[in-house]
Design brief:
14 helices; 2 domains; alpha/beta; 7-stranded mixed β-sheet; Urease, subunit C, domain 1; about 35% helix; 5-stranded parallel β-sheet; disordered N terminus; TIM Barrel
Length: about 450
């Protein structure tokens, strides 16, 4: 036995010595002590969309160094070892952004009450990672999660794993949960009152509960706070026109969030909820399907961002009961859709700042259709493309890093064969995606 141990020890020492002596081990990219050489890419774009100046530039070259744009022009000098990417027959534009993404709620699989109470946080993390990667391949290099149905913090774990480089995925800004009043849009309202107590993940009433909930969201890594400032469409037994929180409660939400130097958004359909949230100082409003002109003017004055989420209502009304939408949910969808376009046009008329969000409770592959749905209402291709790029970056406070193709910004680049400025539906055929200088999707040969 001793002889065997001695042989094993000598073998281990010999292997260790061989590894130490081998230059290939220390030269490995896995060696954290080795200084990495600079990585260059030179991209030739047949056309390039300048979303800030609303211009289409022709025959442009982009030099990328270590994931950052370092030079741009019709002619750029690149190092000999630069990787060459030929997009001469493509239209280049900034990485797209979806500011209203849900990774856990796929409504074709059941109601919110069913999904929220039967999917584990582990399941949500696995599904959410898969769906986030689909969004990236479609061209969405940055997404915001405005809350989701999960009793834990799966969306934070997905974001963190992507940030650590363990998985490829979009840049993510996350509101972990929805703050909702008892019986509100993020509560589970179809369970019997005399059965087991079942509540939504973050049901809070009164200023003390609100402060504690917000602090908990930030303790575990939240970037944003999401509040249900009215009833909703896809929830059970609540009213989209009812605003459940008082002015004092909304004020405390804003105060506590901004104290932590973070941002807060409100789900709101009826005008009462929208107006109250804007008045309280919320940074953005989701949906605002039935807001008044008075509210639109206040949003413009206060600089509140508006994420109108058009396509989700198109999808609900088109699919109806065949997609598992309940009669109650369909009735509420028809109510809010009847006034949605009027609200959006008022906001556009008064100069309300808009960001693009799909609210993808439908199959996530359809999220890209939000661009077309928004343009059908507003008929302004540059405005809509800006909503899904630089305007979203401004809302996030990241416009110095992403949102447009400029020297010094991250190399988030998307390309299509044909320009969305000519026809917005062209954006649904993204064939090239780069995030932070990493090519996620390359064009197929014709």
């Amino acid at each position: 036995m001793k002889a065997t141990r001695l042989k094993m020890t000598r073998l281990a020492v010999g292997l260790y010595a061989a590894l130490i002596a081998s230059p290939s081990v220390w030269a490995s990219s896995e060696n954290p002590l080795r200084e990495k050489s600079d990585q260059y890419q030179i991209i030739h774009c047949g056309k390039l969309l300048d979303v800030e100046e609303k211009k289409t530039l022709v025959d442009q070259h982009i030099l990328v160094k270590n994931g950052v744009i370092t030079d741009m022009d019709s002619s750029v000098k690149a190092p000999e070892n630069a990787e060459k990417i030929d997009l001469a027959d493509h239209v280049c534009m900034p990485g797209l952004m979806d500011m209203h993404v849900h990774l856990f709620t796929q409504s074709t699989k059941g109601t919110v009450d069913v999904l929220g109470t039967t999917q584990s946080s582990a399941f949500n993390a696995l599904q959410g990672l898969r769906l986030s990667q689909k969004l990236l391949k479609m061209g969405f290099t940055t997404v915001r999660i405005p809350g989701d149905m999960d009793y834990q913090y799966a969306n934070i774990e997905i974001r963190n794993a992507i940030n650590r480089g363990e998985f490829v995925g979009p840049r993510m800004l996350v509101a972990p949960h929805y703050l909702s009043a008892l019986g509100g849009h993020a509560d589970f309202n179809s369970f019997a009152p005399d059965g087991p107590k079942v509540q939504g993940p973050m049901i809070v009433d009164g200023v003390d509960e609100i402060r504690k909930a917000i602090r908990k969201e930030f303790k575990y890594g939240g970037d944003w706070i999401k509040v249900m400032a009215s009833g909703g469409v896809m929830s059970q037994h609540d009213d989209p026109e009812v605003a459940p929180y008082s002015d004092e409660e909304l004020r405390v939400m804003v105060e506590e969030t901004h104290r932590h130097k973070k941002k807060i958004t409100a789900h709101a359909h009826g005008d009462a909820g929208v107006y109250a949230a804007v008045k309280a100082g919320f940074d953005s409003i989701e949906h605002a399907t039935m807001m008044s002109e008075k509210t639109a003017k206040l949003m413009a004055k206060k600089g509140t961002y508006y994420i109108p989420t058009f396509y989700v209502l198109d999808w609900i009304l088109a699919m109806g009961e065949s997609a598992g939408i309940t009669p109650d949910n369909l009735a509420k969808a028809r109510l809010v859709e009847s006034k949605h376009q009027q609200s959006a046009l008022m906001a556009y008329k008064h100069g309300v700042k808009m960001a693009l969000g799909s609210d993808c409770i439908f199959p996530v592959e359809l999220a890209i259709k939000e661009f077309g749905a928004m343009n059908r209402r507003l008929n302004d291709n540059w405005y809509v493309l800006r909503a899904g790029t630089i305007s979203s970056a401004e809302m996030l406070g990241l416009d110095d890093q992403i949102g447009s193709l400029k020297i010094g910004k991250q190399a988030d680049i998307v390309a299509t064969r044909h320009s969305p400025i000519e026809d917005m539906t062209n954006i649904e055929a993204v064939s090239f995606v780069m995030k932070d200088g990493m090519v996620v999707r390359a064009p197929k040969e014709r």
